[in-house]
Specification:
- The chain has 173 residues and is mainly α.
- It has eight helices and three strands, in the order αβββααααααα.
- It has a three-stranded antiparallel sheet.
- A hairpin with a 5-residue loop joins strand 1 and strand 2.
- The model has no long low-confidence stretch (mean pLDDT 88).
């Protein structure tokens, strides 16, 4: 999934119309042209702009507000990294973090959940069933988030079934 698609889907879920045009700088960095004079450059900066625009509607505590911003940076620096090691380290970190949580922040889906979900999509699609099992908490969280159609928005669904690993075939019973 491209950065542009991720940002568009976050805005769509938030029912926040993107005021301006998404494009890329000469250095291939996403930017949002708000008007003739104002532009926001960078993935985290655009998400922070959305977050600031919708924060009052969400009644988020100050701590949750800033923790959400940290997840934007985490998604950008580690999950979206070109380094395979960073991506797998991010999966390990999230798996551990989600051990005692259903959501990344608080007791309901937050903007952090959306951003991390969309950022993880390509990684989760590439993981083998065995690898997904090794990230059990992350897989549980991801499976739940993708089950919500307004979030998934026709994103290719990640299969968490492991039945094919068993080599089960009714003809050989």
């Amino acid at each position: 999934m491209t950065v542009e698609t991720e940002i568009t889907r976050v805005a769509k879920y938030l029912k926040y119309p993107i005021k301006g045009k998404l494009s890329y700088t000469e250095d291939n960095i996403i930017q949002l042209q708000i008007n003739e004079k104002e532009k926001i450059v960078g993935y985290s900066s655009i998400l922070n702009y959305f977050h600031n625009e919708v924060q009052n509607k969400d009644n988020q505590s100050v701590q949750d507000f800033y923790q959400t911003k940290q997840f934007f940076d985490f998604a950008n620096l580690f999950i979206r990294s070109t380094s395979k090691r960073d991506k797998y380290a991010a999966c390990l970190e999230l798996n551990s973090y989600l051990e005692s949580r259903s959501y990344l922040i608080g007791q309901r889906i937050s903007l952090a959940d959306l951003v991390v979900f969309y950022s993880l999509n390509n990684i989760m699609l590439q993981l083998s069933p065995l690898e997904k099992e090794s990230y059990l908490n992350l897989s549980r969280w991801y499976s739940y988030i993708q089950s919500i159609e307004t979030i998934r928005q026709n994103t290719k669904e990640v299969n968490f079934s492991t039945i094919h690993l068993l080599g089960w075939n009714s003809a050989h019973v």
